[in-house]
Model the fold of this input.
Amino acid sequence: MANNDDTAKDNADEVELQNDGPDESQAQPKRTEQFPSLKGTEEGREQEVEQRSADGSDGTRFEKKFIVDKGAENSEPQHEANRANVLEDAIQRGLHPRGEVRFDGAEDITREPAEPGRRFFPLVELTYSVETIPAAVDTQPAETTTPRDQIESDDGSTSTPTDKPAAGATRRAEAAKAEKSATAKTSSRTSSATAKSSTSKTSTKSTAAAKPATTKKE
Done:
């Protein structure tokens, strides 16, 4: 009876050891299925961007389409709002945009009225795209173009996005300018403090030299 108990205990130990920890040989393929970019190939990146794009993609360019009333394609505020929305959607889908959003064109679409006899309003489909990097393999996430970057770069003019500097470059230029300004202020304060100290010492010496000698009474 004792031998049977020992055998059962050994079998239980073996089962416990076999179930200890996940099977990494199976976990890795599942991870690359979820994040194809981890394969380290351009094809893997394109595959992941395509999987995360609701409206399609072109290579690693994330695409998004908007259906609006006819004539809205001529409205710059409409384009500004759509560009910011494209960036927001891409980030929420696990992609990091690079550069500015590009307007790829407008296409008239036809939709039948919801009810017979109702007035038909002409519509247009606007398509935008932006270069992206899957977040899983992005080694420079600070270079991500955010909706705020896009809004700040949009100045309300009729110039196209390609005429404007990339948001990442703008941020770097602003950071360098701020650092230069801070250095100049520090240098100015140091020089002012040094000059003040020197003036104070000179004044003290002059006062001491001008002080009359005390006559000793006999």
User: Anything to note?
Assistant: The mean pLDDT is 75.
